[in-house]
Amino acid sequence: MVQRTRLLDRLSTATRARLILIHGPAGYGKTTLATQYVRMLEHDGGKTAWLSIDEDDNTPAWFLAHLVDAVTVTLPRLGRELTRVLEAHGEGAERFVLTTLINRTHTGGQHIAVVLDDWHRVTNPASRAIARFLLEQGCHHLQLVVTSRARQGLPLSGLRVHNELIEIDAAALRFDVDESRQLLTGTTGLTMEDKDVAELEETTDGWAAALQLASLAIREHHDPRTVIRQLSGRHRALGEYLAENVLDSLEPDLLDFLLATAVSERTCAALATALTGRRDAQAVLEDIEERDLFLTRLDEEGQWFRYHHLFTDYLRRRLERGDPERLHELHRTAARWFADQHLLSAAVDHFHAAGDDDAAIDVVEREAIPLLEQSRMNTLLGLETKLPTTAGAMRPRLQLAVAWAHALLHHRAAANDALSRLEAVLPTVPGDEEADARAEADLIRATITVFDDRLDHLDEALEACIARADRLRPWILCGVADVASFREIQRFDFDEARRWQQWARPHHRRASGPFSVIYGYCLDAVAAREQLDLDGAETSLRHAMHLATASDEDNSYSSRLTGALLGELLYEQGNLAEAEGLLDESYSLGAEGGTVEFMLATYVIGARLKHRLGQHEQAAERLAEGERLALSLQLPRLAVYITNERIRTGIGISQVSPDTFPPGLPSDVPDGIAQVTAETTEEAAIRLLLAAGSDSDRTHACRRARILTESISATDRPRASLYARLLLTECLVTVGSLPEAERVLLPVLEQCARSGLVQPVLDTGPAVRELVRRVGSERHGRSISPALAHFLDRLHTAPQPSATPENT
Q1: Of 116, 185, 535, 649, which sits 20 to 30 A from 383 (CA to CA)?
Q2: CA–CA distances in Å: residue 622 to residues 19, 590, 605
Q3: What is the distance between the alpha carbons of residues 575 and 625, in angstroms, rounded to a whole number?
Q4: Model's pTM, two decimal places?
Q5: Which of 717, 713, 784 is nearest to 747 (CA)?
Q6: How much is the CA Rg of the chain, to the nearest whole Å?
Q7: pLDDT digits (tens, 9 = 90+) for 91-145
């Protein structure tokens, strides 16, 4: 490459610029300059990442995923984590991913330059907004280097006002005479007189691509002056003239190889062999690269190559004019090759280019279920956006898969839209297949209901699927068990919830991916935990985590879901360090963080843990985000748990008073979800009464706590009963009823000792902890078990929780 010294000198002082914009027409050396700038930064120890924009980046979720992939080179751990989050739920995590990227680069304190090459290909305002967010919200540690043929989609005026923009335009990019001489003679070995160099520079107007093409033409001509004199016309005509002169000098078989392999944006030896039939494709590609025929290797090993886009465009136009049918067949060949390699986006693009939309739909429809079972919902939805809307709507299997993806990502409206398209075509499906599809659609609707934290119409959907169990795929039957387990958990029939997962075990073994299996083990753990079978719960969660991590070397969506529940369990057992790591991971899931059980672990227990560790700002952030999700997703159970946690920790409760809540438990509730919501509302009211200060309020709190404890104990819910009795103990201690408080507390401590539940006791108020200390000091005069004695010692040595600065 010609070293662009004069431009690099200008950029060498630009490390604090938020944006370096290099823009100009095609072939002006924008990418080359960006490459040299990157190398200069890396030479000085800087961090860089590179993203070559393509048409897929007009889909915001894909642009974000590609951006994270690029950053992975610089920040491997963060990049891999965020990649799996995006794979699971795409645009839903956009703000989290961007703010995390900005925050990590800022706290890291090291300058990072991210190159967005060919930015002009992005026309979608939503994708452009991602870059705007990074520029407007980022810091000087994060710099964007944008190469583009246009200047649209960037906040240039604001950056210019704040002196945070460096702009390199076409006039600056033009090669001067010295740079032209270096390109024409220094890098190619040509011998040219200075006047010829100057004339060629003037004729081409310093257009780098034209100069490069001219150097190839001159090498093949005995008289350079003749070539220079013949150069004239607009850039497009000039490019075609030079390309024809270069190509016409090539051997016919090499020209044919170029024409065939140029149909793909990138190529490798195996793809080139499929397109040309030549077994020596790797050697030919390396020869083309050696001869400077506009081919660049994309990796150090030389497995993947890409032609200069101007050269590719000309080759394709030439092939289209000369043999359009061959061009279509080459696209079909490339599409089949990419499909066989499971590179589905490229396969769909080539089927489209071949005019074969049905084949494009076929490949997405065929791969849809495997993508779902590997929890790659975002990939499936991205592929679906590439398909013709009308033709894709006629494929029932595809619409079922799309509905599943949206349902699992909590995209209620989009899932219902896909189901509506399905309903429109079901009458055209043969009898048994139609019935199967309707049963599956009912299960998808049931899954949407579960994610909405409701129970209505689940029974009908389950019955429809069970009636056709011998015909449905293992994925569906695993889903049946998961919906049924959720239903039984909310009915407080935990044994039945676990039996459903035993029923699903044979179907787990036949599933092609782990996602539905992992969900099943998580629900089994939820039921076991409610029974205080913490060993069984941990066994299920550890197995689910093993399946999740074994399916992908990085942290996946499934492992984050599992980690939320495992983090909650470990927190209750007092293993704060491991719990914190898992709950921090699950926080990245956002709106796609599973059913309410998973969200409660992430936001409520996550905030409680941060509060306990003295990280009050992070605790407040967790609660605020959980509250926002509860409101946007319309999840009352999550909302009241957040409110109750605010009262427990004293974070953000200034607008809440006992009068905010009902005067007691309602006499009639429709289902278990409503009952738990009412019970948590009652707990919040009791805690506010305790904090109110007057004797009458505290006495009132005791009365309501007794009623709440009796109500919960009548439903055979060991874990809920344990927490209710701890709350009652708090109330009794607060009003000075120490003998009764001790009578209530001792069985709770025995149960906690058997189960290993440390944290629920430590999370009670200081008066209860003092009562526990007294019980421990007087244990020699009491009849207590060795297990309880050991447990009391553990409580005594555990670190005490910190108080929120503005509250006690």
Answers
A1: 116
A2: 32, 11, 9
A3: 24
A4: 0.76
A5: 784
A6: 33
A7: 567 877 888 888 877 777 778 899 999 998 898 998 999 999 899 888 888 899 9
